[in-house]
Give the backbone structure.
Amino acid sequence: MRPVMKNPTVTAGGIRAGAPVVPRGKPRQIGLPQRALAGFATTMSELMGPRQTESFGILMYHRVADPVAGLARPTWNVPPERFGQQLEGLLSRGFEAWPLREVLAHHREGRPVPPKAFVITFDDGYENVYLHAFPILRQLELPATVFLATAYLDSREPFPSDDWSEAGSGNVPYTTWRPLTTEECREMHTSGLVELAAHTHTHADFRERPGDLLSDLRRCQRVLRDRFGIERATFAFPYGNKSDGFAGPELSAAAEEAGMLCSLTTEPELVRPGTSPFDWGRFAAEEHDTAGSLAAKLGGWHEAVRSLGHRLLGRRPRHELRRPYQIDSSDTARE
Ligand SMILES: [Zn+2]
């Protein structure tokens, strides 16, 4: 886990103050054994297609911007060209992007979602999503959801949660770090392709604070209603991993009480039939991902090979150590 660093943040009252940047719970560098396993997963996926036929996957993006030569690479970033290649490659493999609300409706009605359906999501609400990702989504006619930390709409400052050392510096174009404007959100929303959604108001650390999450989400929902006419939003947890307590049953219950339609985590797992949408995981789509490696994640090969890797290394798979509530056990039983 990365060390906790000092960085300005915004308190629930909206005042910037020194506060720790909370860990994202995911290693930045992957070692050789992990790389080999990921490569194996990609090969199996390319040879055999999706391993899981009753599940589908959700992809998580953050920033879509070009790195600046000679400077630290932007964190949580996929450059625009790579972003386009990833999505075009998934389409050419037969994957179809579905709106999040449509998979939620299917779930509510007990209708299955095809295994090659997937959902595209963006966290935080970077302006570069409008500038670089939205034109590609429009060109390919792909629906997506943007989870907005609503306190920072129209802000000219970097997100307090932005852990990129160059965010806000004069060395890089502001488009690499600046939050979306209300007007840009409106344009995406009215296109009918992009769903605007909740990512809390302040993007604070809500671990063990379900009451604070509830009131913050109500505020976020008010902004989404007042500015964009969204009555009930979908929601993704900030930071979002269960192992560090950024998601879990108490926080999910608060999201449900706030009227959210779901609460997505950052656990890299498929959505299996019968799993509560207040506990659906997502796969990070990263700069090093190809369409093939994303197809392996969405097809269940990544999870299967990771479990195998844990077994080979003598560790128990994560999903056996921390059993998410309401998860279908059929997959773990097979492995
Ligand atoms: Zn976030």
